[in-house]
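Annotated sample (chain length 279).
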Amino acid sequence: MSVFEQVALAWQCAVVAARQSVRPAMWIPWLPVLLLNAAALTALIGFAHPAFSWLMLPWIRAVAGPSALHYPDCFRALPLLQARAAFAIDAIAGVLASGAATWMFAERFAGRVASPGDAMRRGLGRFPTFFTVSLPWAVLTLALTVGLDVWLGSRGSSGLTVKVFQTAAVALLVGAQSVSLWLPPIVMLEQAGIADTYRLLPRRLTQGSAGSLALTLAALLVHVPVQELLRRVDAIVDRGRPEIVAALVIAESILSLLTSFVIAGAMTLTHRAIVEEER
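Output written by the structure step:
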């Protein structure tokens, strides 16, 4: 397929996947991710409560510094802290959810009954393989975000240098994310092992890399409005409305879940179309 055909296919598949969001059963694989993110946000907002303080106080101090333990600076640090927590959740529960959802979408698109219980069992069965092949992408993401910030801070880099490195990191992350979108269908639908996944990945990329890149960019654009508001977190807190920061963080978490749902379905359908064409 040409680049245009790949992008058009990905867009059509995303529309079809989005229509599945009205079916409650299709959301069941994502419940662990939703509940863990809600629990993390609750613990971050209520970090001073004895039920959470034993864990949250040292973690918040390590990630955002001692000032984040005081009001209202705790709200200034909330987006960063929730993002770090979400990264850990996605690296484990997100892998399970993506795998199970991929199988459910495949069953649904094939005209069969998509059982959430079967999907979770299959997701758990393939979890060791899926987690292992996803790990390099998680490490790369960590290196290009946390690692880069620490390195630039330790060097005392100028504003221009920081901007250049951060822009390059974003470009690398977008490319890496678009590649990693092919892992769930390869592992779950082609039942590939670790070595076979990396063997099949270049072939799938030649067949649909433009489509996965388009989906990645579209997901980023969806987040832009909330991300732009979160960049103004200091002004929001200074105006005495820190609860708005919490609302924005919740909105960001919901958007992440929605985009993950649509992308899982879109990549499942895209993979199916490519494999059928290959046959």
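Annotation: The two ends are 14 Å apart (CA to CA).
Annotation: The chain has a mean pLDDT of 90.
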